[in-house]
Design a protein that fits this description.
alpha/beta, Rossmann fold, 7-stranded parallel sheet, two-stranded parallel sheet, 17% strand, globular, binds uridine-5'-diphosphate-4-deoxy-4-fluoro-alpha-D-galactose, EC 5.1.3.2
Length: 333
């Protein structure tokens, strides 16, 4: 039987595939390669190129694979873009997942681990944010993930689907053996953008706003190493299989770092005096987002091991240095 990983050629999905295969799971991958990379797909995974929105394509995969459970990473995930193209986000993230859930119903697959986001919370007064906080998304991206959480809850009532929804804070880093890493085009996330500036691929890192109500005026975020994040997915899968219960968990390190602190740590980790410039605020950015991950620790037994921000940045830097152009132009079997 196989674990079907949707979006298994993307940044986070590819790290899931590698860790699942490390742990002896049989893995099938679906990816339309819109933002994913052929080079990020583990050679031992059974790869199906296609779109989760195509029922015909999805049926061919479910006919061939004996699917035990699903990990669902296939989504558009840029907050800014989601505000400009909301329907693209509803189409891929909501309609796409509707088809996934239809397939699960049709083929009797009961368990799904779903990638959700801190963006479901929007602006919150109380830090750290616990799962009980009100869901008040301030962008389309967060709204689409919240809609899917609700869809899954209704499916549970109707046909006993069981889901674990994992609300990610700021995911960063790369596989510690350097085999795979983060490659978005265009890149918008802080840590890889800072590292691109370190490599000279950008003239400088622009800090979006230094007049926030925080210690140094720049935004504070909670960064979590991609390998710790995936460890929680595998625990979530086991939780579904052992207890047959649905649940929702935050995944973060429960520590906040300002944009300035990230840049300073990147200077230390790279040994490069990265040029910095200050710009206007980016629309939709909350000033501070820090997770309470107590629930994941208590219920799943999650114990993140790579919580040092320097290690997160060093692992990302290791991959960036060896792949300055990402996966582009590299040869794969
Ligand atoms: N930032 C800069 N300069 C840059 C890029 C980012 O100053 O060039 C700042 C942003 O303004 C923000 C912080 O760095 O304050 C982090 O920005 P990212 O774009 O790396 O991440 P976000 O916090 O905006 O978004 C992340 C995920 C989303 C998720 C969200 C939850 O990428 O998918 O966290 O709030 F929805």
């Amino acid at each position: 039987m196989s674990i079907l990983v949707l979006g298994g050629a993307g940044y986070i999905g590819s790290h899931a595939v590698y860790q699942l295969i490390d742990q002896g799971y049989e893995v099938a991958v679906i990816d339309n390669l819109q933002t994913g990379h052929q080079g990020a797909i583990h050679p031992k995974a059974h790869f199906y190129k296609g779109d989760i929105r195509s029922r015909e394509f999805m049926k061919t995969v479910f006919e061939k694979e004996n699917v035990e459970a699903i990990m669902h990473f296939a989504a558009n995930s840029l907050v800014g873009e989601s505000m400009l193209e909301p329907l693209k986000y509803f189409d891929n993230n909501v309609h796409g997942t509707q088809i996934v859930l239809e397939m699960m119903k049709e083929y009797g697959v009961k368990h799904i681990v779903f990638s959700s986001t801190a963006a479901v919370y929007g602006e919150q007064e109380i830090m750290p944010i616990a799962e009980e906080a009100a869901e008040l998304p301030t962008n389309t991206y967060g709204e689409t993930k919240l809609v899917v959480e609700k869809m899954m809850a209704w499916c549970e009532k109707a046909f006993d689907l069981k889901y674990v929804s994992l609300r990610y804070f700021n995911v960063a880093g790369a596989r510690s053996d350097g085999q795979i890493g983060e490659d978005h085009n265009p890149e918008t996330h802080l840590i890889p953008v800072v590292l691109e500036a370190a490599l000279g691929k950008r003239p400088a890192i622009t800090v979006f706003g230094d007049d926030y109500d925080t210690s140094d005026g720049t935004c504070i975020r909670d960064y979590i190493h991609v390998e710790d994040l995936i460890a929680a997915h595998i625990l979530a899968l086991k939780y579904l299989q052992n207890y047959g219960q649905s649940n929702i968990f935050n995944l973060g390190s429960s520590q906040g770092f300002s944009v300035n602190e990230i840049i300073e740590t990147a200077k230390e980790a790279t040994g490069i005096d990265i040029p910095v410039q200050f710009g206007a605020r980016r629309s939709g950015d909350p000033s501070t987002l820090i997770a309470s991950s107590e629930k994941a620790r208590q219920v799943l037994g999650w114990n993140p091991a790579r919580t040092s921000i320097k290690q997160i940045i060093s692992d990302a830097w290791n991959w960036h240095q060896h792949h300055p152009n990402g996966y582009e132009g590299e040869q794969y079997d």
